[in-house]
Amino acid sequence: MRGFRRAYGLLLFAGAIPLAQAQDFPIKPIRVIVPAAAGGSPDVLARLLGGKLHERLGQPVVVDNRAGASQMIGADAVAKSAPDGHTLLLPTITYTTSAAIQPKLPFDPLKDLTGITMIGEGAFLVVVHPSLPVKSIKQLISLAKAKPGEINYGSSTGTIAHLITEMFMAKVGIRMTQIPYKSAAPSVMAAVGGHVSLVVLSLPSVLPQVKAGRLRAIAVTSAQRSPFVPELPTVAESGVPGYEARQWWGLFAPGSTPRPIIDKINTETRAILATDEIKARLANEGAQPVLTMTPDEFNVIVRNDIERWRRLVKELDLKFN
Fold it and tell me: What pLDDT is stored for residue 152 in this prediction?
């Protein structure tokens, strides 16, 4: 009986450890690794969120930019860090495309990192140079079918912009020619200069050029119209039923981080996202806050996105150098 009580007491003690860790968390500064260069939307959102987490949790939040390998360098650093909630990752949906097309990663993207919550989501814009004689998706499809391979589009190879453009072409049966660029910024400049005729990129990347009349937006890729450009139809309602793609930004921790700590960060982040100030700042990045997502729900989305891009790459036999 005495042995049973001792064993039962040890089980209770062991079960209390994660809870105690969550109650004590954080005990030192939190580092948010952004797997992209300073100034981009993940960096902007990380600094915005970090300032508010500092206020709520009482510890400094430091943003650490680790760009490279399509977000995988930063992701690897977090995957191999201590699983105590003090090192987090803030990537975009490109995390899932990179995980899908890079088979020899130094970490497991589904086991070594775990989702905390999606921070925001937004549409991509389908944008053309004004010299291209199309003002709708239907006109784009007709022109591309009449001139197979003659329309050029700009994207970074293997990124979400590349994959969703290839997905669009496969769905409607057209062929356009990819012109590769290292990042979104030079592809936008190439479109403005007329060196490529089309780009599919997030709102912050191209909307200023659209408003200035240098580029023409013809559709959004999301399932519903974007509240930021409500006049633009979706690709689906423009004659491509079932087509849908969106941008998202999310927060991750090392895979074995105790669940009470994950839940605490999730709760604090969702409270921050619900404030009017943060909603307004997110709007500047073309994002709508995600207010009700649990860690489990986010992990399902991440897994499904990675599987979706893997299937697409295999079905289209896409090659990446």
Answer: 97
